[in-house]
Amino acid sequence: MNYFFNIKNELFDSEIQIPTFQNNGVTSKTINLYKCWPKNDCWIIEKIEKIEEAPEFYYINCNKNTNNEIYFLAHPEELFNYDKLKLKNFNNFTDTSPSYRANLKIFMHENAGFSSYQSEYPYSMISKKGTILSSVCSLGNKNADKNFIFIKNIYEKPIIDYFDAYLVNIKTKHIEEKFQIKTNYTNCIELDRELIKPEIFLVTKDYLGIPIYASVKNQHLSFEHTHPPHEYIFSENKFTKVAELKREINEIIS
Amino acid sequence: MKSLVKNITLSSIGITLRNSLKFRPVPISTRTFEASSISDAFAWRTDNNFTTIFKYSDILNIFYKVKDSWIEIHFFSKENKLIKKKKYYNLDLSNEIEINSDYLNGIESYGVFYIHHFSEENIEEDVLISNRCYIGYSHNQNLYSFVHGNTLAKSTKISYDGKIKSNLVKTSLFKNNHYRIQKYFGGFDKNELFFSNPTTKIIKFSLDNNHYILNAGCSKLIDIGVKKTITIISNCLFLRPTVFSYKNNYLDVHHS
Lengths: 254, 256
Known about the structure:
The complex is a heterodimer of chains A (254) and B (256). Chain A has 254 residues and is mostly beta strands. Chain A has three helices and 17 strands. Chain B is mainly β. Chain B folds into two domains: 36-165, Hypothetical Protein Tm1070, Chain: A (Sandwich); 177-255.
């Protein structure tokens, strides 16, 4: 199962399209979209209505700060055991190969540039803690006017917990910048152009998340996520190798 | 007996039969050489005032502390003709290459390329790496719009023996695979789909009532106009095109 989210900061609005069909063509006419958000240590839930013009998609426009909201597809009967204290794996509708795509598009305003990426947040990440490791140079663009990294975290419990994100130089083993971000939120940090270098990595302590890079120049946009490190290794020892690398970097931030 | 059956069902013929009968289909198999690297089929564009930028990491250094690794990139035309091979040594942790028509011997067209990682060092036998990389597309010299690789295509031994293994993506004898792109294409001025054939087989596919053939390694850019949704019917179990959507001189590129 996947959860979905949107993005809003001082420059960008966003729109997410969530299809009610799978990529093998199977459509569900009874599946609904729900949004939830953490409040007073509970997950508040609300059903979202579909618009008529595109009956096979849910659209969510985000022009105000809803960075704490998340969305999921479920049949009404799957919510009978809804737990306001913990997010659940309600169904496997979005567990497909190729991966299910919800299109998250950012834009500056209606007549300016736009860019989108496949924005699912897998349930398997929601129940785990861990660290992000992302090469800033992979998607940062030195020629852009501005670069941002959005760090989306979704954690199963409806808590707002503050944790640290770092930009670390793995050659000099030096912390270049430190940011405080929070759980169950689409965090945003602006990336200093001088730090877009091969040896600079984004690292977090305590919680997982998805790093998504946005660049802007003359109202043209680019928006894409980096892969978690274990996706570069297919062999059985991949988690050992990634753990070794993370241990090395964690020594810098400890 | 069990292992014989397993070997048959995992053989090339066995997988094709499974995919044809839709019995436990296998879209992708990464059973490959020992100690190898897998490349996606990355799309390059120098047509129509496009340039492409390719960003890749030195994975062998980052994860295996291999200091002498190098890469080789093989560029192919849309008809699968080899345009050039280029080697890069002394890699940084993250690297980039700008691909324009000058870089590709004056060619203004499109096609695919593959990245292969090599090292002289003795690497653990079961190492299998895949560099998904990031490709940016700039139209009319505007900001690059980035997307990651999305079709595993070829593998090579890290120890460099010159052999290349294909057919990681699997096919069927019939056009029985339906893939409906989960995007609403309405509202754009134009949408293009970039298809590449990551196999050595012929891929036949249809978009609505239009029929196409992609020979081994070939690629095709298809203008789908302003259709609202697209279903691809093909004999390939992982035919996932890259999408180029245009509106008011702005461009959005992503995988489908």
